[in-house]
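User: I'm designing a mutation panel for AcrR family transcriptional regulator and want to avoid disrupting the core. Could you give me a predicted structure to guide residue selection? Please restate the sequence first so the numbering is unambiguous.

Assistant: Good idea. Sequence first, for numbering, then the predicted structure tokens:
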Amino acid sequence: MASKRDWLEAGLTVLSEEGAPALTIERLCARLNLTKGSFYHHFRGMAGFKTDLLKHFEAEHTGRYIDGAESAGASAQAKLDHLANLVLDDKGASYDLEIAVRAWALQDTEVHALQRRVDQLRVDYVRSLWRELGGREAEAEPMARLLYLVLVGAQQVVPPVPADELREIYALALRLMPEERRPTE
């Protein structure tokens, strides 16, 4: 029998590969080669599955990154570097999944609320790192948004911007900080 996490991961895969309309009990059961009874063992229908799937997405694709960055060390630079590495190196967090969730958010109020919360959490965290780096307070919000929008935009263009190019763009953006305020490496 598949675990609840197995079902949620299968849901993220279906969402990433085929979009929200493909999230059906039948499609999930076929992907896991299991019966509907197994699905209903963990979830109270598709509405319950969707709610749990969105929580899982938030935990795995926002909370896990922030927790990982926080565990990287005491310096804001170490946290920021580790955050970039986690986001850009995570093969499980495909651009397709982020795009699929954003597309779904345009059609579903529950998903829209999640996307809004996730975007705010991500920007808030980057803003806090900017402040820890010694960046000017007046620049904290615009810089956090700039760094986040670079990632979102890089996911949306066709083809998506490769991770190595994104690292160069982030390094360039961080050089916008006045030299006297830059962290020493």
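For picking mutation sites, this is relevant: The chain is about 75% helix and 0% strand. The domain at 51-181 is CATH 1.10.357 (Tetracycline Repressor; domain 2).
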